[in-house]
Write a sequence for this structure.
């Protein structure tokens, strides 16, 4: 059963799938929603039951610098915990990630399907 959390301008849904956890995030990730966003990402890796994570941000309308910083911290935490993950995002998410050079540390895709494929391929390396 999915878990939902609601920030001021952001909605998060968690759902376990076959062998991965998916976090679906929608809305705006601005300075007001940043704490909820950080908690949502932390929740994706809590418990250690899944070593594969997909962060679905295809319904995010805006991501500010605080959200980008949280994504960078999540990428480092996932690396330390040996979690294979990928982020699916639209232009509003992927463009700022690329613009500030985070695409080197954040595995990005334009669709959730591609993110699942990327996680699956990386897990079998």
């Amino acid at each position: 059963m999915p878990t939902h959390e609601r920030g001021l301008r952001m909605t998060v849904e968690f759902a376990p799938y076959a062998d991965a956890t998916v976090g679906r995030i929608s809305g705006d990730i601005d300075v007001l929603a940043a704490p909820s966003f950080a908690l949502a990402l932390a929740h994706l890796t809590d418990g250690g039951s899944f070593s594969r994570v997909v962060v679905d941000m295809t319904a995010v309308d805006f991501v500010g610098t605080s959200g980008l910083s949280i994504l960078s911290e999540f990428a480092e935490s996932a690396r330390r915990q040996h979690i294979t993950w990928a982020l699916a995002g639209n232009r509003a998410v992927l463009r700022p990630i690329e613009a500030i050079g985070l695409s080197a540390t954040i595995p990005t895709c334009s669709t959730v399907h591609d993110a699942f494929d990327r996680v699956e391929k990386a897990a079998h390396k």
The helical segments are 34-45, 65-80, 91-99, 112-123. Strands lie at 3-6, 10-17, 20-29, 52-63, 84-89, 108-109. Residues 1-8 have pLDDT under 50 and may be disordered.
